[in-house]
Amino acid sequence: MNLRPFTVVLIVPTGVGASIGGCAGDALPVARAIAQISDTLITHPNVLNGAQLYWPIPNALYVEGYALDKFAAGCWGLQPVHQNRIGLILDAGIEPELQLRQLQAVDAARATLGLNITDYVVTDRPLAVELRMSESGASWGTIANPDSLLRAAEKLITQAKVEVIAVVARFPDDEGSLALANYRHGKGVDPLAGAEAVISHLIVRTFKIPCAHAPALLPLPLDPHLSPRSAAEEIGYTFLPCVLAGLSKAPQFTTQKADERSQLPITADRVDAVVIPATACGGSAILSWSGRSTVQIIAVRDNTTQMQVPPEKLGIKALQVNSYLEAIGVLVAQRTGISPASLGGDISPLGGLFDSTQKI
Fold it and tell me: What does the alpha-carbon distance between residue 210 and residue 65 come to, in Å, rounded to a whole number?
């Protein structure tokens, strides 16, 4: 019997202070668990990246946030691959020793993981990243020279024929700031995440190829009170390994018609369930899937964020659960074809659209 593959999307928005997934790779256990009950798990770098740490999940698709929005809207499909040719962009603002650390991380990934990283290019001008914090509490940022980033990406695509791009930009060292201190202690918002998203969005939107970013920063002094949730980012000199591993098998994006493809891509109508923090339901992808009656949106209450956008405020029909453990139970029931409502002790009588005197 050929059953429809069970496809789940896991989203933890970037830079909103999520209590699970707001730090370096601390949503990876959730992704690993959900992947065990899915045929395909679709998620994004904020969930799977853990700086020096990562975990190979064979049935997980690593999809950048802008691409995930286009996928949810039905504009792009996801074409799984066996391996990608990876190109690297280094910000001209990175100091020589710090740049060497990035290149050594690349060589280590080539030698130990067998990744196909073919070429790198240094931008012709420093990107000059600046960090910002919105009134709502989310992090974001700007780059002063986006044209330099795009020129570097175009060179890798046209001359080196790369299929995905990793970017390393020099981020401001913010040692001593309250935001950084809070983040290192497992509280507050990742001050870098919003700016990282701006960089990857720009390349994905312009060239329609997978991209992910790793910041270049000087090592921080040891902190005996460092949170386990933040520790992955402080055990090495570079955050590149997880990005390279994720991009190595990131699906390509396609907008071609079905008769022009040798293999059908995964499309938005293949998605069975979307799991999202309950207070962060205002993103483009969730709004797109909320209009599809075949998609079960599961909102997790205990993954709190700085956002205050629950599904009911937007008229989104969602099943709200207390934890990811409960969400996994819902997914198991859904995959098995069992209504979650039937697993409770209180089942209401069936309601009718018509009374006995009406004719259908």
Answer: 10
Distance CA 6, CA 274 (A): 12
What integer is the mean pLDDT of 76-100? 96
Q: With 90 as the cut, is the pLDDT of residue 274 above it?
A: yes
- Spatial distance between the Cα atoms of 233 and 71, rounded to a whole number of angstroms: 30
Nearest to 283 by CA among 266, 263, 297: 297
Radius of gyration for the chain, computed over Cα atoms and rounded to the nearest angstrom: 21
Query: What is the value of pTM for the model shown?
Result: 0.90
Exposed, middle or buried, 208 (CB in 10 Å: 0-12/13-18/19+)?
middle
Residue 211 DSSP SS3: strand
Is the pLDDT confidence value at 2 over 60? no
What integer is the mean pLDDT of 241-266?
Answer: 81
* Paired sense of beta strands 117-122 and 77-79, if any: unpaired
For the segment 276-299, the average pLDDT, to the nearest whole number, is 93
Q: Residue 137: pLDDT band by 50, 70, 90 thresholds?
A: low
Q: Which residues pair with 167 in a beta bridge?
A: 89, 213
Q: Where are the domains of the chain?
A: 7-254
pLDDT of residue 218: 81
Query: Two tokens at 192?
Result: 């870098």
- Find the angle CA(14)-CA(20)-CA(21) to the nearest 5 degrees: 35
**How far is Cα 98 from Cα 238, in angstroms, rounded to an integer?**
9
By DSSP bridging, strand 252-254 and strand 77-79 are antiparallel
pLDDT value, residue 140? 66
**Sign for the pseudo-dihedral over CA of 284, 285, 287, 288:** positive
What single-letter DSSP state applies at residue 311?
G
How many of the other CB atoms lie within 10 Å of CB of 168? Answer: 28
**Among 9-13, 131-135, 239-243, which stretch is predicted with the lowest mean pLDDT?**
131-135
Other Cβ atoms closer than 10 A to 61: 24
Q: Where are the beta strands (DSSP E) in the chain?
A: 7-10, 40-43, 60-62, 77-79, 86-90, 117-122, 129-133, 139-143, 164-170, 211-216, 252-254, 273-277, 296-300, 319-321
